Amino acid sequence: MSEKETITKKESEEKETVAKKSAVEINKEVVEHPKKKTKKVLRKVANRKSKRVTGIKLILLSILLIPLFTYLYIISLNSDRLINSTLSIVMLVLSIISVLIFLCGLIMVIFNKKIKTGKKVKLWFKIVMGIFLTGYVGVSSLVMVLLYGPNPAFRDWLVTTAMMTMEHQYLAEWFYDENTIDEILSQNTVIETGEDTNPELVQIGGGGANQTIYANEYEEAILKKDEGNDIYKIIDIKYKNFKGKMAVVYDPSKVKLAVSKGVGSNLSTSYGQMITTMSKDNNASIAINAGGFYDPDWNSRGGVPHGVVISNGKLITTGHGRAVGVGGLIGFNKENKLVLARMSAQEALKQGIRDAVDFGPFLIVNGKSSYVNGNGGWGKSPRTAIAQRKDGIVLLLVIDGRQAASAGADMNDLVAVLLKYGAYNAANLDGGTSSAMSLNGQIITNPRNGSFKAKTRAVPNAWIVTK
């Protein structure tokens, strides 16, 4: 082989080697390039996904925080009992921060669009989270609308009901300031007729005792006596969203005022008794609570009555001031007619009042109903009332309250029920935990105390029906 051919062959081999080497390097680069690119993409995807997840978490957190702090701030603007002025500023700042958190999360979600990675949030988790957040925001918003919205119905109910209790006035004071509470109470009042009862308008025994045809179902319920019992009957009351018992007493001479053996004027030594005890001690078939009593610590023994108390023609006590600013003397004269009047103890004795307590408001006088503005200012609670029809029949009414089956009654409700059954004169008696009726020594209503427990309490006196 010539030298020229040898050189040519070497050059050819070198070129071939270079070509092979280049091919290997190119193949290597081609192979490795996608891997580098994939890692870079994955890092970018992971970063975007992380930001999106963080954004979603921030949005969820803000949905929890915005209503909480905003609504607490709104409450603080209406009352400083629950949240003082310093905390009010804190609530405002936290509300603003919560909104900023929401906006930050929203921006992170918008600028980091969803990327399919094969992983999905479980459907059940989405449903549970959706229900929870919807319920949380919905319920909290509804509460705020009820408390501060344009419709005053719930607000009036809450304030009047809470302020008429001794244990739960804070429920109104948490959400409303003193001026608002006073304004609400002034807009829910009972405006009485201003008259005293005229006993001559009541004719005892004037009803149709032997009727077989009745004007309506209520007249039938009153006048159709239970077989073998000419003294009384018990009627179940169901009206609107409450229920209770009404004792219909055909002989008003049987209605008397029983007084606790421990009644007096000294708070530490006086004590009340349960209506069942007073009923047994006085050989009574029926008993209901009657007048109010001095209860400064909401836990007294119920032995110091408010106002005048007369029993069997004797003055028992002039009491510890008046219980309420309306009403007056509620009692029976010697003719067994219900008297509702504003008079002193001595005036009552001179006019022949045999049994009486001091309470109110008067609901119906001489057939005329008091004007009940709003709910009357007493809210819905357990209630007790006494009434007499024009034919002399006495109605003793007890309404259950503070429970799911019976929310309680306001003054409008008492008037409505009593009018249906023909009341001609009627008055509200002490209510709340005291409200109860017993039959033959056993409680037949469902009393509730301020903690919603099924119990009543000792009272200074009771209207009873003797056997």
**Strand percentage:** 15-25%
Order of SSEs: HHHHHHEHEEEHEEEEEHEEEEEEHEEEE
Average residue-wise pLDDT = 88
The secondary-structure class comes to alpha+beta
Number of strands: 19
Q: List segments where confidence is low: pLDDT < 50 over at least 5 consecutive residues.
A: 21-33
Based on CA atoms alone, the radius of gyration comes out at 39 Å
In whole angstroms, the N-to-C terminal distance is 151 Å
Strand order, main sheet: write it out: 2-3-15-14-16-11-12
Helix content range: 25-40%
Helix tally equals 10
What's the number of structural domains?
A: 3
Report on the biggest sheet. 7 strands, antiparallel
Q: Which descriptor suits the 3D outline?
A: elongated
Oligomer: single chain
Walk me through this protein's architecture:
This protein has helices spanning 3-78, 85-110, 123-148, 153-163, 170-173, 178-187, 217-223, 275-281, 345-350, 411-420; strands spanning 190-191, 232-239, 242-249, 255-259, 284-289, 309-311, 314-317, 328-333, 338-341, 353-359, 362-365, 368-369, 371-372, 383-389, 394-399, 423-428, 437-439, 442-443, 461-466. α1 packs antiparallel against α2 and α1 packs parallel to α3. It has 10 helices and 19 strands. The strands form 5 sheets. Strands 2-3-15-14-16-11-12 form a 7-stranded antiparallel beta sheet, covered by helices on one side. It has a 5-stranded antiparallel beta sheet with strand order 4-19-5-17-18, covered by helices on one side. Mean pLDDT is 88; it is low at 21-33. The chain folds into 3 domains: 14-148, no CATH class; 153-187; 191-466, no CATH class. It is elongated and about 105 Å long. By secondary structure, it is α+β, with helices and mostly antiparallel strands.
